[in-house]
Amino acid sequence: MTLSSNNFKALVQQTAGFDTNYHWPMSIEKGIQAMMQQLKLSDPQTLYQKLVQSPDLLYDFIQQFTINESYFNREPMLLETVASNLVPELLIESQHEKHINVLSAGCSTGEEPYSIAIAMIERYGDGCWKMFDFYAIDIDIEAIMTATQGIYNSRSVHMLDQRILQTHFYPINNSHYQLKKDIRNQVNFYRMPLQKVKHFFTVPQMDIIFYRNVSIYFDPQTRQSIFNHLSDILRPGGYLIMSPTETFAHDFKRLALIEKQGFFVFQNKKQPTESLFAHQPIVNESQKKSLLQCKSLNHVVELASRKRYEFALNQLDEYMNDNDDLQAHVLKACILINQYQLSQVRAICQEIHQKDRLNEAAFLLLGQVDRLENHLKKAQFNFSQVLNINPQNWLAHYFLAKIYEDFSDRHHAIDAYKAVIKLINIGKFTAHGLLFFPLSFTMSDIMFLCQKRLEMLE
User: Fold this and answer.
1) Signed CA dihedral, 151, 153, 154, 158: sign only
2) How far is 365 from 332, CA to CA, in rounded Å?
3) Edge-first strand listing for the sheet containing 234-241
């Protein structure tokens, strides 16, 4: 087979669904050369075979051609309508304990999901974090990494009111701002193509889906396929929100097109059924009795992995009443750290160390707490203690690498990133020492991130 750049272009279009009129930010030829250089390949044929065989590499290749341009508070009246009209309706009509799941589909560098989160805290106050779970997906790993860091230039925040900017951001310098952790920690970012969204969210569990200014890049067949997938994960009564230019082109009769405060949105008018709520904290009496009688921690981990933290903690407390299990304390600390309950995590870890002075997980969790509280010297000590106990804990190496970078210790940062890559290459990715650690990135994402940091440091 003789390959040309058109073969690669067709592969990208087929996978990402780009329309034939899509504006490519760089040429396919430059993308091929950049990927061959990154993988140290000299033969386009070999690169093509690797892309076909590895979805992770293919997504890395595709992200070179994605366009990521966004800014905060892009449409303030829409956010106001969502916060003041759609959410109250969902809370009144909901059958899932007044809890709302919100998805930003095609989130780019995070401005949209963070704008939504800011709108909710402005409308409902600090207690709103118990009311909402925010999710965001994009195919571009670099965009996702930018989003998780939450650092933006002045253009990205130019539409924000000064009070909002001063309340929710830290100024880094004259031209850059970082979103505060209390909001960054509320949005769960995942890397995936939109065509795979139904395989990740396997049941209808979204109440509001933002899918704006994304479908314009796709061909008609891909547009309908993605719309169908998003419709399938929308709960009864839930809303799918698109831009005005996209909305009417997507009236496939799968959802009802309705008007809310001057905006046209899609709504799932189907009646809820019991089977649709498998991922919610509501269960029937027989299920509840069964859960309370569980004799292992597996179900608690499963609940936590679905981000049903409050319900998981209730089940865990029931378990701990009947079982003197040190691992249960570790699991509780793992769940609490995802809720940013840092003082409780620290207390649990100290209690664990009173019973097991060399508990690896407790040191790892204490290191994370210290790092989140910006006590970097203490965090460095705790992560080093992890490695004294288990030199093959890649997560401790990774956090140390970030700390070394903060300390401008280039040499030790390089060594730590190389250690992460080596340990993951020999199959230690799942051996991070914690019962529950919800990784937002895949193994290839972590490898890619470490390699990028090494390129910059070296």
Assistant:
1) negative
2) 11
3) 187-191, 132-138, 100-105, 206-210, 234-241, 263-267, 256-260
Cα(118)–Cα(87) distance, integer angstroms: 14
- By DSSP bridging, strand 132-138 and strand 100-105 are parallel
| Conformational region of residue 315, where left means phi above 0, alpha means psi within -120 to 50, and beta covers everything else | alpha
Q: Is the pLDDT of residue 338 over 80?
A: no
CA 294-300-301 angle, to 5 degrees, is: 135
The predicted model gives 14-26 an average pLDDT of 62
Residue 153 confidence (pLDDT) above 80:
yes
Between vectors from CA 356 to CA 355 and to CA 360, what angle results, nearest 5°?
A: 145
Give the span between the Cα atoms of 87 and 176, in whole angstroms: 32
The dihedral through the CA atoms of 452, 172, 346, 315 has a sign that is negative
Kindly list the domain boundaries of the chain, sorted by start residue.
5-65, 76-272, 362-457
CA distances from 151 to 169, 170, 179, 277, 344 (A): 9, 9, 6, 36, 28
Superfamily of domain 76-272: Vaccinia Virus protein VP39 (3.40.50.150)
Distances (CA, A) of 278 to 129, 203, 227, 233, 397: 21, 8, 22, 12, 37
pLDDT digits (tens, 9 = 90+) for 92-144: 776 545 689 999 999 988 999 999 999 999 998 877 888 899 999 988 877 88
User: What pTM does this model have?
Assistant: 0.52
The predicted pLDDT at position 121 comes to: 92
Give the separation between CA 234 and CA 229, rounded to whole angstroms.
Answer: 9
**Coil, strand, or helix at residue 171?**
strand
* Domain 362-457 annotated CATH 1.25.40.10: yes
Encoding tokens for residue 120? Answer: 């909710």
